[in-house]
Design brief:
single chain, 2 domains, 8 helices, 3 strands
Length: 177
């Protein structure tokens, strides 16, 4: 059901006409308006594609690369568009830590200890972090959010049960049964 909302709207006049009420489908005036709307929709989609491509470093051209180069301090002098893209991508990769990298893992271990594991689902933009016998999981998420890439949702899971220590209460409960 959700996929019907994610599908792009039809842009061909024949497809748009099918969306009209039955009494309007044969009217030439409605057909002319639908044809105009379809052409305008296609033109806007093409323009949005151009803008999108300029914002993605490895697709950017003469419009987007100067912005990326100024932002990252790269110099375009004497380089082809492909070389400029590669330099921008390299500088961007160096500036943004990889969520699967050893630096991120070390930061997480420093914050919550070594008894944890994770699975990253890049397609769903989720990071499932497993910890055994954890305190309230929202506390751990608060510790991890500052070092975890912003585009990833953190899903916390923990093992079942709880840890017992050798306190007097534990001994009393054990001997009472």
């Amino acid at each position: 059901m959700a996929s019907e909302y994610l599908a792009p709207p039809p842009s061909e006049p024949e497809d748009l006409i099918q969306l009209l009420p039955s009494w309007a489908r044969e009217d030439p005036d409605f057909g002319a308006v639908v044809d105009c709307a379809a052409r305008e929709s296609a033109r806007m989609r093409d323009r949005l594609g151009l803008v999108r491509d300029q914002l993605i470093p490895w697709r950017a051209g003469e419009l987007g690369l100067p912005w990326w180069e100024a932002f990252l301090g790269a110099s375009p002098k004497g380089k082809t568009v492909q070389e400029r893209r590669e330099e921008v991508a390299a500088r961007l990769a160096a500036a943004v830590p990889d969520s699967r990298g050893s630096t991120w893992e070390a930061q997480v271990t420093e914050r919550i200890g070594s008894a944890w594991d994770y699975v990253e689902d890049a397609a769903a933009f989720t990071l499932t972090i497993s910890v055994p016998h954890a305190p309230p999981l929202d506390w751990i998420e608060v510790l991890l959010r500052p070092v975890t890439p912003a585009h990833l949702d953190i899903v916390m899971v923990s093992g079942e049960g709880f840890l017992l220590d050798n306190s007097q209460l534990d001994q009393e409960q054990f001997h009472a049964s």
